[in-house]
Amino acid sequence: MDCTIIPETQHQMFEYLKSINCCLSCCTRFIGTESSEYFRNLMSDSKLLNDTLKDANASDNVPCIVCLGILQHDIQQQTLKQIIDSVNSSGFDSPTFTCNLSIPASLNLRERYIYISLTQKFNLSKDQLCYLKLRTQNIKEVWKMQMLSAVEAGILKQQISGAIPSLFSIDITYDHANDQEDCQKFTESYIKNVESKNSKHRNNIYSRNNIEKLLNNIEDDEFMKYFSLSSGHVTIGKISCFHRGIFIGGRYKKLSRHLSQTPWYINGEKKMETSVQDLLCNHIVKYTNSDTLKFLSSGREDVDVRTINRGRPFAVELINPKVTIITAEKLAEIVNEINASTKLVEITSGLKFLCSGDLQKLKEGENIKTKCYRALCILRHKSKDDINLEQLSNMKNIKIIQKTPIRVLHRRPLTPRTRLLREMRARWLTIEEIKTARELFSESRIDHNLLNHLFVFDIKTQAGTYVKEFVHGDFGRTRPNLSDILGAEVDIVALDVTAVNIEWP
């Protein structure tokens, strides 16, 4: 069966829609017009439109019973002005944008009413109605056809749509004073068995999703029994601008043994004056005028552990940044500002913009990367002459099992973990190093004889290894451990992360 609608019937449908106070755009939509040019210029050369739009100005002054004015000139001009004012005063420098439209839920009911009315008045077949619905442009798409060129000209940005939208979005919300009342009246009339005084439950009943589900299940005659059109118009509820997060990353050195990686709070009280995150990110957040940030890194060091040499990979997600066009020269300037502002941390690489693939690399690195450490260890209760440090150099790919360390047991599950130690080596302190240590501790009460029992321990290991616990054994919770291997009690004095082996940035 032929599902098309002949031009004469389309002409009659258009006249009928005008007569019940549909706007020109909705009249054009509901006769199945698909061409965007028709909606941009309703006075086009189309014979159908030329014949029917002679009194266009008069018919478009009354609020439309379907779109409630969203596709009409007056509301669109008000919307355009507010969009331009909002964007131009917001400070966002993005060269592109995407528009998102939120419209009243009751418009779905009004469109269903129009389809039923057209079917009944013009005796449309089921196939013709289905074909008409497929060709009918939705309100949001027509609004974009009509408005986006003017928005582009007004804010001097390019509109981007499709699978990869712009990171900068302009969200427009249209409200209708009787929207909930219209939906409520319809649903209460139809769903008589749903009666609840629970406001939360009632709000769920009148949600957009439930209205759409109900429309899919209700027959036409039932719908017309419970719904009637009312007049009204929309108002511009809210126009807001938002830029999705951007990521900037690099590597940092942590040069203090009294610095947490992120702000440290206990019971709402900040325990340390600053943190790695604060020192690295405050300058970046300030320059980009971001609302806030999320700090990401390839692992984390304890407060008393330094990260040296090339440093640790990190990334910062900037939430709703206003400034996103940043040159390489400016990024280098920001690095210099950060490094000049503190002696506690240092950015060792240039900063660069990151993509999702970079972030995935940072995440995957948690499982596949290796890390190198240097520890200053002390031998207890045994002479160094009885200890063979050289044997460690011959030990490769040693598997150890670590139970969750006692020091983190309060925040992590009790789970044994197998870790692979790639290689290790150790040496006693040199005479010069011992001399320097004596000078350093000259005014302290430390037993200087203990300095002869200090040794340097280097290890390359799988990420996630608790190195402190491997050294002293954590009361037997790590096996084997360095104390087991050397046959003597060993403790750790200081620890440095010397390498995080991941390609970054």
Automatic annotation (TrEMBL):
Transport found in the keyword field: no
Q: Which Pfam families match?
A: Pus10_C (PF21238), Pus10_N_euk (PF21237)
UniProt-recorded Gene Ontology molecular function terms: RNA binding; tRNA pseudouridine(55) synthase activity
The UniProt entry, under SUPFAM superfamilies, shows: Pseudouridine synthase
Domain (Pus10-like C-terminal) spans 247-500
Query: Per UniProt, which keywords does this protein have?
Result: Isomerase, tRNA processing
GO biological process assignments: tRNA pseudouridine synthesis
Does the record's keyword annotation contain Isomerase?
Answer: yes
What EC numbers are recorded for this enzyme?
Answer: 5.4.99.25
What is the superkingdom listed in this entry's lineage? Answer: Eukaryota
Domain Pus10 N-terminal eukaryotes span(s) in chain numbering: 64-229
Supply the InterPro entries for this chain.
Answer: PsdUridine_synth_cat_dom_sf, Pus10-like, Pus10-like_C, Pus10_N_euk
Entry similarity comment: Belongs to the pseudouridine synthase Pus10 family.
Q: What name does UniProt use for this protein? A: tRNA pseudouridine(55) synthase
- Per the UniProt entry, what species is this protein from, by scientific name? Microctonus hyperodae (Parasitoid wasp)
